[in-house]
Please model this.
Amino acid sequence: METNTSQSFTGKNKITMKNIGIPKGTRDFAPEEALKRHYIFSTLRSVFEQHGFLPLETPAMENLSVLLGKYGEEGDKLLFRILNSGDFLAGVPEEAKQESQSLLPYLAEKGLRYDLTVPLARFVAMHAHELVFPFRRYQIQPVWRADRPQKGRYREFYQCDIDVIGTKSLLEEVNILQIINDVFERLGIAVTIKINHRKILAGIAEYFKIEDRFYSFTVIIDKLDKIGMENVIAELQKNEFPTELIDFYKHFSTEKPTIENLARYFENNYTIRQAVSELKFILDHAKELNLMYQPVFDYTLARGLNYYTGAIFEVVAQNVQMGSICGGGRYDDLTGIFGLPGYSGVGISFGADRIYDVMETLQLFPSNLVKGGDIIILQFEDSDLLSLFRIAQMLRKNNFKVMIYPEAHKIKKQLSYADKLHFTYAIMQGSDELKNNQLAIKNLITGKQITIPVNELHFLTTNDLNAYFETS
Amino acid sequence: METNTSQSFTGKNKITMKNIGIPKGTRDFAPEEALKRHYIFSTLRSVFEQHGFLPLETPAMENLSVLLGKYGEEGDKLLFRILNSGDFLAGVPEEAKQESQSLLPYLAEKGLRYDLTVPLARFVAMHAHELVFPFRRYQIQPVWRADRPQKGRYREFYQCDIDVIGTKSLLEEVNILQIINDVFERLGIAVTIKINHRKILAGIAEYFKIEDRFYSFTVIIDKLDKIGMENVIAELQKNEFPTELIDFYKHFSTEKPTIENLARYFENNYTIRQAVSELKFILDHAKELNLMYQPVFDYTLARGLNYYTGAIFEVVAQNVQMGSICGGGRYDDLTGIFGLPGYSGVGISFGADRIYDVMETLQLFPSNLVKGGDIIILQFEDSDLLSLFRIAQMLRKNNFKVMIYPEAHKIKKQLSYADKLHFTYAIMQGSDELKNNQLAIKNLITGKQITIPVNELHFLTTNDLNAYFETS
Model:
């Protein structure tokens, strides 16, 4: 409708089926997958809205000035850049044309969104004067990364984020735990919620005087679940971290410490005391709220991103190895980089693609989710189309999903179509039924068939329909 | 959660609020707009699913080999191209580096989706052997065009398409009219649905022997509503179309012909007779179905895209000038270009952005759509947070949208927040109420306040809550 172009589909540039495809790392979602994905998105959306979060949507493209430098050097390389339109070489100095790296800045000034966090920070910084704080937003949109595609890693995937910006209240951390709990309870995924505090890690670094190597320290610690304590200790040694630090990890190598253990071990460290007190508030409230999934303290949880400053969360599924399916934490200065300092916030991101894989592996999707509709109306050579349309109209008014098979094919063919698309009922009205103002309904699962007056459709509900088949 | 990058938000590349922004022609959708847009999308989705359409999603990026040549030369220029990753200049011959046009093919092999029709054709051609035909899919996704931005025209906008592929049955045309009717009836937009048939235009061209200039002919005719019959005739003359053709348009210059008029005028033309018979079937059924919005035959409706071969539709709002808000038609060979000939289909596209503008202009959005939630729980210095959390939990179980204000700010400040976010009720529980296991609920619209036992929340519905305030 927005198109007003000419000469379309004229056969120029004709290519055959053999050489069509989609870019690597991207996916088509056929109806079955799309319905299941929508089920995840709408569950998330519903829980988010129940907690007073409101939707935000940002453009797929951002200016590169907004994106560059926010994800590290590696991240800059993974940005998809949009080639400038028109004569993009105009005015480019000859020497810049000799090398990709030198030409790059001239070719593109826009890139595809890499995550939803930087666009959020950019949005809040741009609109701080109009927004009402604390600003609670959710955002469910795709992001793009020019990563090497591999199992479970795509170049286009969805992030589902919630963030509260403009309050330091720990109530929001408790709230986040409630949301994580509610989402996975509704989806039927048994999860383990890990929790830690960046100040635990910062305090350890302070205590052992390795603040200047904090980042590489957290990278090693973060690997614990993957490579085991022995290898973590080996890496710490290889990287010449102090013996005292290594002794500390050896001390807890067989059993992870509780927060009380840590509080005792580092009793004079203010940073750790602070973290412990915050974590206790959060954990105590979660306990009293009887959440089905209680957070478990894990002193090795680090989370990659350096902007976290408070509590951090990570969620894994209990019954399948799929890595983290949700994670986040508190940050003290997300919007500072865009010139708006002093806004503390807390947020988490649900990974829809991995959640999908978990649900598919554990067969957690509702069985009636994937279907072409509730009722298919079959067509005979002598069908009165108008009557079929009216039947469909009545049923749709009562919220049934209904289609009329568009041609008077052999009934076997129509039923096979209904079967492949998982319709529950088929309606048939031949000339006899039409004369008597009746129709036949066949339950496609049980094979049972009944005949009812057309008039009864006016107030027919799903329950009525089920009842017909139970009592007949 | 998918991020594992380093050195983020470190303050390098710090830019100030002054130079942040978004690419021209793109938009942020703040919560109020996002909620309203979601209302449109979910209405469309719901009507589509009621008619047995299933969702399809395709990647934002397509290979340029799929996109190029499908939208005419002009369209090719409007494609956003994705710069190849890595060393994109490697192996590019020196002479190609001298001009944008010659360098272009080396720089990009992917582009952003320009519409949803070509990706559909590509998907169907790729998966024809697995799909069940007739294939009924809907697709609601953004598309991108490097068009000059102007009022109502964006570089990123949503298309909402439905198509049925693999049947020639006219039943689907009637169905499409029912869907258009249902969508706009639900949204509350009074519309005019125009209908024509490409074979009316083809027949006219045949009759006056201008088949070789068919495209430029339709382009002029299509302008009628914009420039008036006088100017159309002038343009036809300027372009030296035959006098007989011009006489024909003069003949109907004061009143548009009915299909019966045309049938009589061209009574020996087989093509027009065929079109008239199909249109009669469609219009008669629409009439008998008592659709609120009846299609109106308009012999000048042409629709831009050349791939239409049968009935064509276009919808405009009655009470505001906004151009076409929905349009489509039947095509005989959409997938042929991808090596899969012989699949007839019919489809329409709803323009969500224009529908939004119409609804905003005519104030058709439900008044209770935009709100932070139903209930806000206020916080006092002496509040028992656990009790507030439990109250929120109970209310959410009963489907209320609830947030707890995260800090014990002055009540005036909290109420102002509630007001700005359009909450309907505020709950307060000071130490007195807590002692008596009670809470106070204030209706923020009327200002009325009542006190109820906490236990009553367990089974509280919206109706109960409203009733409390009516009877108290």
Chain A touches chain B through 155 residues (CB under 8 Å). Confidence is low (pLDDT under 50) at residues 1-14 of chain A. The domain at 31-79+114-361 of chain A is CATH 3.30.930.10 (BirA Bifunctional Protein; domain 2).
